[in-house]
Protein backbone atom coordinates (compact mmCIF):
# COMPACT_ATOMS: atom_id res chain seq x y z
CA UNK A 1 0.00 0.00 0.00
CA UNK A 2 1.42 3.40 -0.94
CA UNK A 3 2.04 5.84 1.90
CA UNK A 4 -0.74 8.13 0.60
CA UNK A 5 -3.26 5.28 0.56
CA UNK A 6 -2.15 4.11 3.99
CA UNK A 7 -2.55 7.62 5.39
CA UNK A 8 -6.07 7.84 3.95
CA UNK A 9 -6.98 4.44 5.43
CA UNK A 10 -5.61 5.38 8.87
CA UNK A 11 -7.59 8.65 8.86
CA UNK A 12 -10.77 6.84 7.83
CA UNK A 13 -10.22 4.24 10.59
CA UNK A 14 -9.82 6.98 13.22
CA UNK A 15 -13.05 8.57 12.02
CA UNK A 16 -14.79 5.21 12.02
CA UNK A 17 -13.70 4.47 15.62
CA UNK A 18 -14.96 7.84 16.79
CA UNK A 19 -18.25 7.33 14.92
CA UNK A 20 -18.78 3.91 16.53
CA UNK A 21 -18.16 5.34 20.01
CA UNK A 22 -20.60 8.22 19.59
CA UNK A 23 -23.34 6.22 17.84
CA UNK A 24 -26.45 5.43 19.83
CA UNK A 25 -29.56 3.57 18.80
CA UNK A 26 -32.58 4.81 20.72
CA UNK A 27 -35.02 5.58 17.91
CA UNK A 28 -36.08 4.37 14.47
CA UNK A 29 -34.34 7.38 12.93
CA UNK A 30 -31.04 6.47 14.65
CA UNK A 31 -31.54 2.84 13.60
CA UNK A 32 -31.82 3.96 9.97
CA UNK A 33 -28.61 5.99 10.37
CA UNK A 34 -26.85 2.92 11.82
CA UNK A 35 -27.86 0.94 8.76
CA UNK A 36 -26.20 3.56 6.53
CA UNK A 37 -23.13 3.64 8.79
CA UNK A 38 -22.80 -0.16 8.60
CA UNK A 39 -22.91 0.04 4.80
CA UNK A 40 -20.18 2.71 4.84
CA UNK A 41 -18.01 0.59 7.15
CA UNK A 42 -18.44 -2.41 4.86
CA UNK A 43 -17.45 -0.28 1.86
CA UNK A 44 -14.33 0.90 3.74
CA UNK A 45 -13.48 -2.74 4.51
CA UNK A 46 -13.91 -3.65 0.83
CA UNK A 47 -11.66 -0.72 -0.17
CA UNK A 48 -8.96 -1.78 2.33
CA UNK A 49 -9.16 -5.37 1.07
CA UNK A 50 -8.69 -4.17 -2.52
CA UNK A 51 -5.55 -2.27 -1.46
CA UNK A 52 -4.30 -5.36 0.36
CA UNK A 53 -5.07 -7.60 -2.62
CA UNK A 54 -2.95 -5.39 -4.89
CA UNK A 55 0.06 -6.32 -2.74
CA UNK A 56 -0.92 -9.85 -1.80
CA UNK A 57 -1.91 -11.13 -5.27
CA UNK A 58 1.61 -10.99 -6.78
CA UNK A 59 3.06 -12.60 -3.64
CA UNK A 60 0.46 -15.39 -3.83
CA UNK A 61 1.33 -15.95 -7.48
CA UNK A 62 5.02 -16.33 -6.56
CA UNK A 63 4.14 -18.73 -3.72
CA UNK A 64 1.84 -20.77 -5.98
CA UNK A 65 4.57 -20.98 -8.63
CA UNK A 66 7.16 -22.08 -6.06
CA UNK A 67 4.79 -24.74 -4.69
CA UNK A 68 4.04 -26.00 -8.18
CA UNK A 69 7.75 -26.27 -8.96
CA UNK A 70 9.00 -27.71 -5.68
CA UNK A 71 6.17 -29.57 -3.87
CA UNK A 72 6.60 -32.80 -5.85
CA UNK A 73 10.40 -32.91 -5.49
CA UNK A 74 10.03 -32.23 -1.75
CA UNK A 75 7.51 -35.08 -1.45
CA UNK A 76 9.89 -37.38 -3.33
CA UNK A 77 12.65 -36.52 -0.85
CA UNK A 78 10.32 -37.20 2.10
CA UNK A 79 9.28 -40.53 0.56
CA UNK A 80 12.92 -41.50 -0.05
CA UNK A 81 13.81 -40.58 3.55
CA UNK A 82 10.91 -42.67 4.88
CA UNK A 83 11.88 -45.64 2.68
CA UNK A 84 15.50 -45.53 3.84
CA UNK A 85 14.46 -45.21 7.49
CA UNK A 86 12.14 -48.20 7.04
CA UNK A 87 15.00 -50.30 5.60
CA UNK A 88 17.23 -49.33 8.54
CA UNK A 89 14.40 -50.14 10.97
CA UNK A 90 13.86 -53.59 9.39
CA UNK A 91 17.58 -54.35 9.62
CA UNK A 92 17.90 -53.21 13.24
CA UNK A 93 14.74 -55.07 14.23
CA UNK A 94 16.09 -58.25 12.60
CA UNK A 95 19.30 -57.88 14.65
CA UNK A 96 17.24 -57.40 17.81
CA UNK A 97 15.07 -60.44 16.99
CA UNK A 98 18.20 -62.54 16.38
CA UNK A 99 19.68 -61.45 19.73
CA UNK A 100 16.43 -62.43 21.51
CA UNK A 101 16.43 -65.80 19.71
CA UNK A 102 20.05 -66.39 20.78
CA UNK A 103 19.15 -65.49 24.39
CA UNK A 104 16.26 -67.96 24.29
CA UNK A 105 18.55 -70.73 22.98
CA UNK A 106 20.96 -70.11 25.85
CA UNK A 107 18.10 -70.07 28.38
CA UNK A 108 16.72 -73.31 26.93
CA UNK A 109 20.15 -74.98 27.20
CA UNK A 110 20.39 -73.95 30.87
CA UNK A 111 16.86 -75.21 31.52
CA UNK A 112 17.59 -78.55 29.88
CA UNK A 113 20.85 -78.86 31.81
CA UNK A 114 22.98 -78.85 28.64
CA UNK A 115 25.08 -75.93 29.96
CA UNK A 116 25.74 -74.51 33.41
CA UNK A 117 24.39 -71.15 34.56
CA UNK A 118 27.90 -69.66 34.76
CA UNK A 119 28.50 -70.60 31.12
CA UNK A 120 25.15 -69.14 30.15
CA UNK A 121 25.95 -65.85 31.91
CA UNK A 122 29.25 -65.64 30.01
CA UNK A 123 27.49 -66.41 26.69
CA UNK A 124 24.81 -63.77 27.40
CA UNK A 125 27.52 -61.20 28.20
CA UNK A 126 29.27 -62.10 24.93
CA UNK A 127 26.02 -61.48 23.03
CA UNK A 128 25.90 -57.91 24.32
CA UNK A 129 23.25 -55.41 23.34
CA UNK A 130 22.27 -54.66 19.77
CA UNK A 131 23.65 -51.26 18.84
CA UNK A 132 20.64 -49.08 17.99
CA UNK A 133 22.66 -46.10 16.85
CA UNK A 134 25.11 -45.50 14.06
CA UNK A 135 27.22 -42.36 13.88
CA UNK A 136 29.25 -41.29 10.88
CA UNK A 137 31.29 -38.20 10.20
CA UNK A 138 28.26 -36.63 8.49
CA UNK A 139 25.21 -38.10 10.23
CA UNK A 140 23.70 -40.25 12.92
CA UNK A 141 20.82 -42.69 12.94
CA UNK A 142 19.10 -43.99 16.05
CA UNK A 143 16.34 -46.54 16.44
CA UNK A 144 14.02 -45.44 19.20
CA UNK A 145 11.11 -47.37 20.60
CA UNK A 146 7.91 -45.66 21.61
CA UNK A 147 4.58 -46.91 22.82
CA UNK A 148 1.48 -46.31 20.72
CA UNK A 149 -2.15 -46.95 21.59
CA UNK A 150 -4.31 -48.67 18.99
CA UNK A 151 -8.04 -49.21 19.16
CA UNK A 152 -8.51 -52.96 18.98
CA UNK A 153 -12.31 -53.01 19.43
CA UNK A 154 -14.22 -49.71 19.09
CA UNK A 155 -17.33 -51.33 20.61
CA UNK A 156 -15.58 -51.61 23.98
CA UNK A 157 -14.49 -47.94 24.15
CA UNK A 158 -16.38 -46.08 26.95
CA UNK A 159 -18.85 -43.35 25.92
CA UNK A 160 -16.69 -40.62 27.47
CA UNK A 161 -14.21 -41.01 24.58
CA UNK A 162 -16.74 -40.53 21.78
CA UNK A 163 -16.93 -37.06 20.27
CA UNK A 164 -20.24 -35.55 19.21
CA UNK A 165 -20.47 -34.53 15.57
CA UNK A 166 -22.02 -31.14 16.36
CA UNK A 167 -22.24 -30.06 12.72
CA UNK A 168 -24.21 -33.16 11.78
CA UNK A 169 -26.39 -32.91 14.91
CA UNK A 170 -27.29 -29.26 14.14
CA UNK A 171 -28.07 -30.05 10.49
CA UNK A 172 -30.22 -33.09 11.33
CA UNK A 173 -32.01 -31.25 14.16
CA UNK A 174 -32.90 -28.32 11.88
CA UNK A 175 -34.08 -30.73 9.17
CA UNK A 176 -36.28 -32.50 11.73
CA UNK A 177 -37.68 -29.16 12.92
CA UNK A 178 -38.38 -28.07 9.34
CA UNK A 179 -40.12 -31.36 8.49
CA UNK A 180 -42.08 -31.63 11.75
CA UNK A 181 -40.27 -34.80 12.86
CA UNK A 182 -39.50 -35.87 16.43
CA UNK A 183 -36.42 -34.05 17.67
CA UNK A 184 -33.09 -35.71 18.52
CA UNK A 185 -33.07 -36.50 22.27
CA UNK A 186 -31.06 -33.90 24.15
CA UNK A 187 -31.41 -31.25 21.43
CA UNK A 188 -33.62 -28.15 21.58
CA UNK A 189 -34.29 -25.62 18.84
CA UNK A 190 -33.91 -21.95 19.83
CA UNK A 191 -34.30 -18.79 17.81
CA UNK A 192 -31.27 -16.51 17.96
CA UNK A 193 -31.27 -12.94 16.62
CA UNK A 194 -28.62 -11.60 14.29
CA UNK A 195 -28.38 -8.45 12.17
CA UNK A 196 -27.79 -8.63 8.43
CA UNK A 197 -26.85 -5.63 6.37
CA UNK A 198 -26.62 -4.92 2.65
Task: List the SSEs and their pairings.
Elements: H1 3-22, H2 28-112, H3 117-127, E1 133-135, E2 140-142, H4 166-178
Antiparallel strand pairs: 1-2
Helix pairs in contact: 1-2, 2-3
The assigned structural class equals mainly alpha
Order of helices and strands: HHHEEH
Number of domains: 1
Q: What is the average per-residue confidence, as pLDDT, rounded to a whole number?
A: 90
Computed CA radius of gyration, to the nearest angstrom? 35 Å
Number of strands: 2
Strand order within the widest sheet?
1-2
The helicity comes to 55-70%
Q: How would you explain this protein's 3D organization?
A:
The chain is mainly alpha-helical and 198 residues long. The protein has one domain (3-178). 65% of the residues lie in helices and 3% in strands. The chain has a two-stranded antiparallel sheet with strand order 1-2. A hairpin with a 4-residue loop joins β1 (133-135) and β2. 1% of the residues are buried.
Index terms:
198 residues, mainly alpha, 4 helices, 2 strands, 3% strand
How would you summarize this macromolecular structure in one to three sentences?
The chain is mainly alpha-helical and 198 residues long.
Amino acid sequence: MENKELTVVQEKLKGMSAMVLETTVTSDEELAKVSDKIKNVKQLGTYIKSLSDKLVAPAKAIIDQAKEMYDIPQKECKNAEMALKRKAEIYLQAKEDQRKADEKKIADKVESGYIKEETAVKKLEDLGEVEKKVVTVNSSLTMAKRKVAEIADPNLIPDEYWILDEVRIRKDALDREKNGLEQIPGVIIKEVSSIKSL
